[in-house]
Amino acid sequence: MEGDLKRAASIIRDRRETVVFTGAGISVESGIPPFRGPDGLWTKHDPSFIELGRFLEDPAGSWVLIRELFFDAIERAEPNRGHIAVAELERAGFARSVVTQNIDGLHQMAGSEKVIEFHGTTRTLHCLDCHTPYARENVDLSKTPPRCASCGGVLKPDFVFFSEQIPEDVSRESFAEAAAAGVVLIVGTTGEVMPAAYVPVVAKEAGAVVIEINTSASSYTKDVADIFLRGKAGDILPELVHEMRGAEKC
Ligand SMILES: [Zn+2]
Questions:
Q1: pLDDT tens figures, 23-47
Q2: Above 80 in pLDDT, residue 250?
């Protein structure tokens, strides 16, 4: 592990064009529950409330859970050491972007600048009828469903619901980043959600070195990852950054 960490640090330092690909595992340490896994939201709630057709039929019903499980949980959360280390990689010139499956905005709060949100965000919403965009801070969620100030239409958060397509520009940009990456650093994602899960695979096919940080082996570990660093993002990422800094001073 010690040797793998040093090797990972030196690869990122030498190649520089790292794309950090993150999932729920990095935000769990900020108190945001994951969707999948033994303690995931889907063990307690039927996910149909964010199925697009169901939402359109009963937005008031869906919004009660959307507010509680997404907005309330996310708005209580702060970036953790993992998010901060990712932002440091970019600031130090080692990372070119973050492609995240998370909708919580914690990478941006930690200081990451180039963040592609594969599954959208809770930070903005739009009116289903007239398409007016809203920033979260301008929407009152004390009554649900929130409604458009100009036409009274229901507002939908700008994260991707089940049976909704990934916006084409987001998908294109994510895979372009993957293709341009010298290194992909997978953090806190097991590669189960398509098509996002292909991001490291596309990068690998284009010649990138794949480094994985996860608490347990994933669908990437055996065939896609070149280096697997087992542990929590909030422990391993700061160690990685520390290792890179140490080597730079030599
Ligand atoms: Zn409207």
A1: 999 999 999 988 888 888 888 889 9
A2: no
Domain enclosing residue 249, as ranges: 1-32+79-119+165-250
68: pLDDT confidence band, cut at 50, 70 and 90? very high
What's the CA-to-centroid distance between 64 and ligand 1, angstroms? 20
107 included as an active-site residue: no
Give me the CATH number covering residue 125. Answer: 3.30.1600.10
**Ligand 1: centre distance to CA 131 (Å):** 6
Please tell me which residue in 45, 83, 119, 126 is annotated as part of the active site: 119
189: CB partners within 8 A, 6+ apart: 21, 22, 23, 24, 25, 101, 196, 197, 214, 218
CATH number of the domain encompassing residue 184: 3.40.50.1220
Residue 135 CA to ligand 1 center (angstroms) comes to 14
Asked if residue 154 lies in contact with residue 42, where contact means CB atoms within 8 angstroms, the answer is: no
Q: What is the share, in percent, of the chain residues with pLDDT greater than 90?
A: 88
pLDDT (tens digit, 9 = 90+) per residue, 228-237? 999 999 999 9
- This prediction has a pTM of 0.95
The total number of residues written for the chain in this structure: 250
CA distance linking residue 40 with residue 186, whole number of Å: 20
Distance 155 CA to ligand 1 centre (A): 8
Q: Where are the alpha helices (DSSP H) in the chain?
A: 2-15, 24-28, 52-57, 59-66, 73-75, 81-91, 106-110, 168-180, 198-205, 233-249
195 and 236 in a common domain: yes
Instruction: Compute, in angstroms, the gap from residue 68 CA to the centroid of ligand 1.
Output: 23
Q: Please identify which residue in the block is written with the tokens 């929407």.
A: 139
